[in-house]
Write a structure and sequence with these properties.
By secondary structure, this protein is of the alpha/beta class. Strands 2-1-3-6-4-5 form a six-stranded mixed beta sheet, with helices on both faces. It has two domains: 150 residues, Ribosomal protein L4/L1 (Ribosomal Protein L4, Chain: A), CATH 3.40.1370; 44 residues, no CATH class. It has seven helices and six strands.
């Protein structure tokens, strides 16, 4: 089991904590991590791109000129693709980019991402994270004390004082233990987790 230091909000080490190898010490599967990131980005795509084909643009019901003896090439409609204002040949239509991963793959990818943060010494465990009021400056001070700049802060409970205090800080995001995902874990330089949140993650994913 990996041992990590536990810090208080002043940035002082107040103890150590053993991390479960079942969650924070697995063999990293880069393929599943890659798939999990791709899935999240693909599922976020709206897929609303649209252009009209010749059957959808307005007008063009009348044949522009007779078939023969005009000197022009034969034309059946002014809304054919070669005409100005005509339809697009292979027009894009709204589509669903999302795809599925099974539960075991998702769990394995998340464990791999968490393990990578431990191995790279980018996991910071706090004994607790409590603020008396909603104050951005107080949250900034906490992050400076623990030397976390671009950070994902994982909480065990929906603490509005902490969430709202961190909301306006650039490159800082808060998440609950049931909303963490591979993309966010890898996107931020530091993973800041409360001790209670670590225990909850181990309980759910072990």
């Amino acid at each position: 089991m990996a041992n990590v230091s536990v810090y208080n909000m002043e940035g002082k080490e107040v103890g150590t904590m053993e991390l479960s190898d079942a969650v924070f010490g697995v063999e990293i599967n880069e393929h599943l991590v890659h798939m999990a990131v791709l899935q999240q980005l693909a599922n976020n795509r709206q897929g609303t791109q649209k252009a009209k084909t010749r059957s959808e643009v307005s007008g063009g019901g009348k044949k522009p000129w007779r078939q023969k003896e005009t000197g022009h090439a034969r034309q059946g409609s002014t809304r054919a693709p070669q005409w100005k204002g005509g339809g697009v040949v292979f027009a894009p239509v709204p589509r669903d980019y999302s795809f599925k991963m099974n539960k075991k793959e998702k769990r394995a990818a998340l464990k791999s991402a968490l393990t990578s943060r431990v191995q790279e010494n980018k996991l910071i465990v706090l004994d607790e994270l409590k603020l008396d009021e909603i104050k951005t400056k107080a949250m900034v001070n906490v992050l400076q004390n623990i030397h976390a700049d671009k950070a994902l802060v994982v909480l065990n409970e929906n603490d509005q004082n902490v969430i709202l205090s961190a909301r306006n800080i650039e490159n800082v995001k808060t998440a609950l233990t049931n909303t963490i995902n591979v993309y966010d874990i890898l996107k931020y330089n530091t993973l800041v987790v409360t001790k209670a949140a670590v225990e909850k993650i181990e309980e759910v994913y072990a």
